[in-house]
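Ticket #4471: structure export looks truncated?
Reporter: QA, pipeline team
Priority: medium

Steps to reproduce: submit the single chain below to the structure queue and open the exported record.
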Amino acid sequence: MTIGTMITRTGAALGRSLNRLESWITILREGVVAGALGGGVVALWYLLCDSIGGRPFHTPAVLGAIFFEGLRGHDIAAATLAPVVSYTAIHFAAFIVFGIASAIVIAIAELEPLFILGALMLYACFEICFLAGVIAIDASALGVIGSWKIVIANVMTLATVFGYFEYRHPQLLSRFKARWATFDEETIVSAPVLPDSIIPVPELRLAPAPAVVK
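Actual output as written to the record:
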């Protein structure tokens, strides 16, 4: 099965599946829960780090001041309510949108397990866009927040969101592994051999060497 055929068949099957309203309700519910879990884990992680450092809510205060007040990371002395609430709202909204998009990809992966790779690429794009936005506004904010905190937060988010989807779709990972093992065998196509009756191949003969006259 070629990749194009795989996508066509999966799209047709998905279209038939999503004609039912309950399918969309299930996808939306799973997406909202996954996004809320991912956003909550990240928020709790930064709250823990900030509290240990003696500055509770410092990270959302920095990001909120950068995005909504035009301040720079090193200008934030103490957390205030407005930027913390504003950024927290945007934070959870973005994660819920990401969760819904991931739930749609997971629904497709139920029909073709290889599409689970699309969910991973979606998460990579989500994180790249966030980091690019922060760097574009104030590159120093990454240093204020701490790069190691961001890396750990990304790992925790990935484990939480896809752990939830694995809980909701317990056979999906094993089906992906089995599908991946057979994918190369299905996509390798031998080169076509054209019979001689279609394109005759003339027989090549070497001409005899000319006789040497003495």
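Status: closed, not a bug. The export was complete when the record was re-opened. Leaving a note from the reviewer for reference: The two ends are 68 Å apart (CA to CA).
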